[in-house]
Amino acid sequence: MTVLTTNLNRSLKIRPRVLLPPFKVLATETISHKALDADIHSAIPTEKVDGTCCYVTTYKGQPYLWARLDRKPNKLAEKRFKNFLHSKQNSKEFFWNVEEDFKPVPECWIPAKEIEQLNGNPMPDENGHIPGWVPVEKNNKQYCWHSSVVNYEFEIALVLRHHSDDPGLLEISAVPLSDLLEQTLELIGTNINGNPYGLGSKKHPLHLLIPHGAFQIRNLPTLKHNDLLSWFEGCREGKIEGIVWHCSDGCLIKVHRHHLGLCWPIPDTYMNSKPVIINMNLNNYVYAFDAKCLFNHFSKIDNQKFGRLKDIILNV
User: Fold this and answer.
1) Model-level pTM?
2) Of 69, 207, 299, 304, which has the fewest CB atoms closer than 10 Å, so is most exposed?
3) Which Pfam families did the record assign (predicted)?
């Protein structure tokens, strides 16, 4: 399951205005045909988490965390694409030469699974990008925040999700990477997207992984523009970045607060309204961890409960 920006326009009927640059996407009153075809009314609504997308799959014979890396067009191709959009406004009609139009990517790069293929080559989405992944190596400074939430020696990851026995309680735990294989997740934390959830500090950064679809929305209103707007503005559960509907056919349908003219980030997020418990269970590993790593820090506050995510202070 790969979250793609191509699905952003499936939630409500959207009329993009391409003003090169920029363009603004707003939701209207009408549900799009694509959303209806995907049976959005029977889909599972979940919280859209504000972070950076990750993926877990095999690399070098073991489960690995992969970071999102889109293959983008070179300057000449990008200029040609923008000029085409300005005249035609339909990116699907544009002809790409994948072998010549795009910047090089690392040899270990792989395209996202849902990307269309033509003659064995992955094709760009309507934004002119080819979404894909690169493995997060332990000592790669570019992805140091990604690598802080995984330990490849013990094949575990730091994961935030609901407590299995109490949906009103969040839990931070060490999860085997093998349990996350072929899943996409969101990396959140101090140095990701301006830290909208207030995790950690500059001196003591804190990052966590959240599986996509982990936070199901229980009391979503009808799919009407004004009802959704009221829900986002006035309901505690609506203090989120957006909604992702998981359809039975695998389709992801999204709406962001910005599509409804609302601001994000906001001061008090729904994620920070719940208590959180630390449940690491690292007795077999604690003495093998590096003293500065997050796994070691969390082991020192294992079984402790906090009023909200913002209240977690690591004993550094």
Assistant:
1) 0.89
2) 304
3) RLIG1 (PF17720)
